[in-house]
Amino acid sequence: MYNAVDLFCGSGGVSQGLRSAGWRVVAACDSDPAAAATYRANHPETHLVEGDIQLNATIDAIAAAANGMVDLVVICAPCQPFSSQNRHRGNDTREQLIVRALAVVAKLRPSLIFFENVPGLASSAYREIVTAVHAGLRELGYAVSEPMVRDAADFGVPQRRRRCIMLAAKSEAAVAAFSSADVRQDPRTVYSAIADLPPLASGDASETDPLHRARTHLPIAVERLKHIPRNGGSRSSLPAHLVLQCHKGKPTSFSDVYGRMAWKSVAPTLTTGCTDLTRGRFGHPDQDRAITMREAARLQTFPDDYQFVGQPAQISRQIGNAVPPAMIEAFVPAFEAALAIGVD
């Protein structure tokens, strides 16, 4: 059985994907209390270090928890610093967390290191960060791939979610084995993920599933949704008297707001506001409401028995921030192909 360490683990999407593929996650780390509570509820066998990775004590605790040979360290540092939506791009101190995580690599010397983040990390704006990561890893004796942008929709996730990935290994051959492995999965749709869930109106809640609870929308919001075509419609169909004041004369500005998902397509990228009509194309394909937390969790490929802890806003944030478990599980054969090369 292969052993992994999950840094910036959040609610546990990476760990869930690895466990589903038969791996053991020996240690994990995150500093968010609500996400840590969710992680513990689902991964009691993993030693979770709840702390700030910028502190040496946290690094030491992770190394002690790993306690032996580690095949893979996964580094999914906070993506907000590298997001195109970040108003503080270039001045966000969290940018350095991905570099700081190399202190864990130096302690554990794993066979592989996998990085996952938003595509912005691969842009010229953050070339200095990527260069620092490459330099740090090479100093530790690792070969490193260039940033590669991949879409989770190609790896069994019913969602358009473009991500930047990189792999480091102890030989160029191992990196090449990972990069050349074709681990794409058959596409999945919104319909395949959520169509079987019970219908809900605004404010309704399932009696058996606490996550399948619809937001209570204002009457004007419900009225707008009634005018938006089913199955992929957008706010461009709204009559003039229902167009938001901030959208008047701006048909292409934030055009996904109040939009509906389409049954036979993938969902748009889920964010921390994935159950809010005003934050993106998060309207149900044919019901007059935003998607529920359960629908969002399924679109992120979490199983229904996965327990989320916290208030609705905290749970939506955990779901939107998560790495889809199915994507990580899809990459496992590529990890194992790299490990099979003989990396030492």
TrEMBL record:
Instruction: Give a GO biological-process term.
Output: methylation
Keywords for this entry? Methyltransferase, Restriction system, S-adenosyl-L-methionine, Transferase
Q: How is this protein named in the record?
A: Cytosine-specific methyltransferase
PANTHER family (UniProt xref): CYTOSINE-SPECIFIC METHYLTRANSFERASE, DNA (CYTOSINE-5)-METHYLTRANSFERASE 1
Q: Does the keyword Nucleus apply?
A: no
User: One GO molecular-function annotation for this sequence?
Assistant: DNA (cytosine-5-)-methyltransferase activity
This entry's Enzyme Commission designation comes to 2.1.1.37
Tell me which InterPro entries the record gives.
Answer: C5-Methyltransferase, C5_DNA_meth_AS, C5_MeTfrase, SAM-dependent_MTases_sf
Enzyme superclass (EC)? transferase
Q: Which domain of life, per UniProt?
A: Bacteria
Instruction: Give the signal peptide range.
Output: none
Q: Does the keyword Transferase apply?
A: yes
| Active site feature | C79
Q: Which family does it belong to?
A: Belongs to the class I-like SAM-binding methyltransferase superfamily. C5-methyltransferase family.
Q: Which reaction does it catalyse?
A: a 2'-deoxycytidine in DNA + S-adenosyl-L-methionine = a 5-methyl-2'-deoxycytidine in DNA + S-adenosyl-L-homocysteine + H(+)
